[in-house]
Amino acid sequence: MRKSIVMKLFLLTASLCTVVIAGLFIVQSVFFKQFYVQQKVGSVQKALTAASREDGNVKDARSAFRIEQQFYQTYNAWTARLDPLGNLKYTDDFEIEVRLENDSDAPSLSGKSIGIPLYAVMDVEALSDANPLRPDFFIKSGARIAIEGILIDNQLFPQRIGRSASNLRAENRLENEPLVRKEYEVVPRFSSPTEYHERYPSVLVHGTVTQVRVPNGSNESRYENHLFLERIKAFQADLLYGDFNDTSDTVMDFEENNIPYKIVLKRLTNQTGSDGFLIAMTSLQPVNEAANIMRRYYGYIAAAALLLVLLISFYYARRVARPLLQMNNVTQKIAKLDFTSSIPVNSDDEIGSLSRSINTLSRMLHVHIVRLEQDIAQEKRLEQTRKEFIAGVSHELKTPLSVIESCLYVLRDKPDSPKRGYYFTAMEDEVKKMALLIADMLELAKYESGTYRMELSPFRIDVVIANVCEKLAPDLADRRLQLHTRFTPSEVVANPLRIEQVIVNFMTNAIRYTPEGENIMVSTNENEETIKVCIENKGTRIPEDQLEKIWDRFYRVEGSRQRSTGGTGLGLAISKQILDLHGAAYGAANTVDGVLFYMELNKSGKT
């Protein structure tokens, strides 16, 4: 039902809006942008016509720069005046005067002084006082330079300038790149290079710089528009090589960095003929921005209309299909085992009856699934507890059983041995230890299943440590280990039997991994609220990346701490469980030449 109504309304409104939006975009893309460009170009052309009438007001570089600034501020376009050969006029503030040497290859230039506009071969920033390389620049008064260029009507148009003829291809040369590129473009048009040079003679002359003029202050910015100057030089190259012959106003397209530009050329004439050109260049980026803004504006209108239509159609579709939509949403959640939602029942018809049935089914499924998950979780905990119990008992019972087995072998081989009573006593002690150990493991397993609670009481920790050290004295003597103790009378709140078991595990671990003849240090440090028990042994250190893993069940450190040293890997795991029951801080750390195990127990009265 939802599909038949909502989809039909959606298709109808989407088709209508698509037609409207398409029409708006067609009109905008075909007419608006063209109209805007035509208006922009027409405005610049009229401005150039008006500027041509005021050409007589321009006398020098300063007045030319002022008029160019006014033109840009008014029409948002750059403009410049060119002479009939395409040179930028009024550049006497940015040029050099060169006294040419006598040269048989260029007799028409021998001994003459010529002015070379520097904008054609370099950037004005190179001669700025702020340029740290200016003192090393070879263009300076009195310097001898080499000039390579083309000779047209006995006028030299420099292509390259260098310190000498050998430097004309060096990186620090000055070059009119558009003119050089144009030469490479024109040469293939001739049948041979000789024919080209007959038409456009190339000359190489030398001369001495007699004067360097550099613009100052704001006038310098006239030569900082490198993009516009490059187009002027490119136009001059086309003009000199005969690729520009238009006698009327010309509009050209140009693009740089994906930004389109329009170049407008107006030829100036006087009574004697051509008097030069007015050139203007304007960016069309504002046109594209305006077109994009209009496109977004139409998009907002179309989106608003589409939204309004969709809201109206959606209202009626939802009014009819709301109960079925609610059933669909709730049943999808039930399929994903999400029973947090129910279907509102607002009627007594067939839909209302179906909604009540689905709600009842959802509640029943929820109750049964929750109960099943709880049973599964409980079963997993019990299974894990059984596994850990069996592993722990196997580990801790191994030593007592070995002692009993050894005593039985001795009694079997020597039933009349004078130590018969001693062996029975030893076996009785081990049986008692096993009984106590089994009881402890059952309590530990009970805790891991979530039902065990540790019974705490105050006791002297130094007494417990002393008793453990006394019990383990034979093991220390067997391995010729030196035991050093440093502890003061201190009372803590914990389970004394479990803490003793932890200390035994720490001490046994230290004895097992300490080389013969080395030292074991046992100490207590009193803090504000806790007593820190430290057991440090000299010997092999534990890799840093394994310090956290040694508390895992059955984990063994590689290297020197191998199975041959004894133990099954459960002692530290059991200690961890006991200390976790106490909520005590504990850990292991490498020292300079060994390993330190520690635990922190609450002082009496600080629980």
UniProtKB/TrEMBL annotation:
<dbReference type="GO" id="GO:0005886">
    <property type="term" value="C:plasma membrane"/>
</dbReference>
<dbReference type="InterPro" id="IPR004358">
    <property type="entry name" value="Sig_transdc_His_kin-like_C"/>
</dbReference>
<keyword id="KW-0067">ATP-binding</keyword>
<feature type="domain" description="Histidine kinase">
    <location>
        <begin position="392"/>
        <end position="605"/>
    </location>
</feature>
<dbReference type="InterPro" id="IPR036097">
    <property type="entry name" value="HisK_dim/P_sf"/>
</dbReference>
<dbReference type="InterPro" id="IPR003594">
    <property type="entry name" value="HATPase_dom"/>
</dbReference>
<dbReference type="InterPro" id="IPR050351">
    <property type="entry name" value="BphY/WalK/GraS-like"/>
</dbReference>
<keyword id="KW-0547">Nucleotide-binding</keyword>
<protein>
    <recommendedName>
        <fullName>histidine kinase</fullName>
        <ecNumber>2.7.13.3</ecNumber>
    </recommendedName>
</protein>
<dbReference type="GO" id="GO:0016036">
    <property type="term" value="P:cellular response to phosphate starvation"/>
</dbReference>
<dbReference type="InterPro" id="IPR036890">
    <property type="entry name" value="HATPase_C_sf"/>
</dbReference>
<keyword id="KW-0902">Two-component regulatory system</keyword>
<keyword id="KW-0597">Phosphoprotein</keyword>
<feature type="transmembrane region" description="Helical">
    <location>
        <begin position="297"/>
        <end position="317"/>
    </location>
</feature>
<dbReference type="InterPro" id="IPR003661">
    <property type="entry name" value="HisK_dim/P_dom"/>
</dbReference>
<keyword id="KW-1133">Transmembrane helix</keyword>
<dbReference type="GO" id="GO:0004721">
    <property type="term" value="F:phosphoprotein phosphatase activity"/>
</dbReference>
<keyword id="KW-0472">Membrane</keyword>
<dbReference type="InterPro" id="IPR005467">
    <property type="entry name" value="His_kinase_dom"/>
</dbReference>
<dbReference type="GO" id="GO:0005524">
    <property type="term" value="F:ATP binding"/>
</dbReference>
<keyword id="KW-0808">Transferase</keyword>
<dbReference type="Pfam" id="PF02518">
    <property type="entry name" value="HATPase_c"/>
</dbReference>
<feature type="domain" description="HAMP">
    <location>
        <begin position="318"/>
        <end position="370"/>
    </location>
</feature>
<keyword id="KW-1003">Cell membrane</keyword>
<keyword id="KW-0418">Kinase</keyword>
<dbReference type="InterPro" id="IPR003660">
    <property type="entry name" value="HAMP_dom"/>
</dbReference>
<keyword id="KW-0812">Transmembrane</keyword>
<dbReference type="GO" id="GO:0000155">
    <property type="term" value="F:phosphorelay sensor kinase activity"/>
</dbReference>
<dbReference type="Pfam" id="PF00672">
    <property type="entry name" value="HAMP"/>
</dbReference>
<dbReference type="Pfam" id="PF00512">
    <property type="entry name" value="HisKA"/>
</dbReference>
